[in-house]
Design goal:
This protein has eight helices and seven strands. It is an alpha/beta fold. Strands 1-7-6-2-5-3-4 form a seven-stranded mixed beta sheet, with helices on both faces. Strand 3, helix 4 and strand 4 form a beta-alpha-beta unit. The radius of gyration is 18 Å and the shape is globular. InterPro entries: Plipid/glycerol_acylTrfase. One of its GO terms (biological process) is phosphatidic acid biosynthetic process.
């Protein structure tokens, strides 16, 4: 059975070496990323870029089910930490819809734009313009686009309600929405307790949680990467579900339907050992 690795000087030193190697990798690849044309090629390259991060972090991926071949395709999932940004492109290809704040992050925002990420300003006064941009992107690309409808990461104890405004453009459109459920496990596939998930593996703000355990020490994004490297990584189990019929539903009904599908399946799988 898996357990949280005890932190000591050896784990810390190993994580420091891996973290330094990650930044060396970033610096080496910056000229490549700069020269890549935006579009399908740069989105494809994101999978290679992120694979290196996963190897250094000790993260494994296990996938159940298949992504639909229909386009335009919007894949929605629950959201626990920043590592979804790495695991999804490696597992499936494709890019993301992300909150506008990330665009301002030093270096990260620039790299994300090159990798085809669509940034959405979720303020009500900007919602129509932002969602129009998402719709236009979906209509043009040949790869899946991923969205986290909770609007934030959680502690992994539950799935928050989905923000219905994010589904405005889905009403009466040809966009297929495919739900996916993501679970974190120890590397051997055993269950991570809610307490350990919140304390060590989740990346969230305590103030935004409605239930379940809280973390005693909230980390920065890069602090979380370093912490996972120190722990030796984990397993991400992705369960791809069948796209539900959404025709005739308004955005609120779409959000509620998808949230129930994802939440029910997540709670069913959360305390079960990972499927082989």
């Amino acid at each position: 059975m898996g357990q949280v690795r005890k932190q000591n000087i050896f784990n810390t030193a190993g994580a420091a070496v891996k973290f330094a190697a990650f930044w060396v990798m970033v610096v080496i690849q910056l000229p490549i990323i700069l020269l890549l044309p935006r579009g399908k090629v740069s989105v494809w390259y994101m999978g290679i870029f992120m694979q290196i991060l996963l190897i250094l972090s000790g993260i494994k991926i296990r996938v159940h089910g298949k992504i639909s071949k229909h386009r335009p395709l919007l894949v929605i999932s629950n959201h626990i930490s920043i590592f979804e940004i790495a695991t999804f492109p490696v597992a499936f290809g494709g890019s993301f819809v992300a909150k506008k704040d990330i665009e301002a992050w030093p270096l990260v925002g620039w790299v994300a734009r090159k990798f085809g990420v669509v940034f959405v300003d979720r303020r009500p006064s900007h919602a129509i313009e932002a969602l129009k941009q998402v719709q236009e992107t979906l209509s043009k690309v040949s790869y899946p686009v991923f969205l986290f409808p909770e609007g934030t990461t959680t502690n992994g104890a539950y799935v928050k309600p989905f923000k219905s405004t994010l589904f405005n453009f889905v009403e009466n459109s040809d966009v297929i929405v495919q739900p996916m459920v993501m679970n974190y496990r120890y590397r051997d596939g055993s269950v991570i307790s809610d307490e350990d998930l919140a304390e060590h593996f989740g990346y969230f703000a305590n103030a935004k949680q409605d239930m379940g355990p809280l973390c005693s020490h909230e980390r920065s994004a890069f602090g979380q990467v370093f912490h996972i490297m120190m722990l030796g990584g984990f397993l991400v189990e992705l369960t791809v579900l069948t796209p539900p019929p959404l025709a005739g539903m308004d955005r609120k009904q779409i959000a509620e339907t998808l949230q129930k599908i994802v939440s029910d399946k997540y709670m069913e799988l959360k305390d079960k050992k990972a499927k082989k």
